[in-house]
Specification:
By secondary structure, this protein is mainly α. It has one domain. The protein is 81% helix and 0% strand. Helix 2 runs antiparallel to helix 3 and helix 4 packs antiparallel against helix 5. The termini are far apart.
């Protein structure tokens, strides 16, 4: 939905297009895992599902972050940091699932991504000029 909204607003259209093009692959990975998983011992099938879920969460965070960062200052400072940290988190999550356990690095990037994503609305509000009430 956020990808479609980016296309409708004609802001960061490339992000919207990438999210919409990637979403079917992420969904396919999760659906494959759901369809094929029968029980213990099928770790590769579960890895596909978790990988799809991790990248789906990353695409939601990136696309909504683009929508939340409205001012130019946030688009220049916070948006790149959150996008880079989110993509790095998803990549490290995928590497961790498929066998190369870099849990500490994953945790650090995930914290930066999540903190930036949560802070964007507050920073957006703080950057507005104060309204005077009569």
């Amino acid at each position: 939905m956020a990808g479609l909204e980016l296309l409708d607003r004609e802001v960061f259209r490339l992000v919207g297009v990438l999210v919409l093009l990637a979403a079917p692959f992420f969904a396919a990975a999760m659906l494959y895992a759901i369809w094929k998983f029968e029980g213990d011992g099928q770790q590769d099938i579960l890895r596909w599902g978790w990988s799809g879920l991790g990248w789906t969460v990353a695409s939601v965070v990136v696309s909504t972050e683009v929508l939340l960062a409205r001012t130019r200052t946030l688009q220049v400072i916070v948006l790149p940091a959150v996008v880079i940290a989110t993509v790095a988190s998803a990549a490290l999550f995928t590497l961790t699932i498929w066998g190369d356990g870099r849990v500490k690095a994953l945790s650090a990037f995930a914290i930066v991504a999540f903190a930036g994503w949560l802070a964007t609305p507050a920073l957006e509000r703080a950057s507005r000029p104060a309204r005077r009430t009569p």
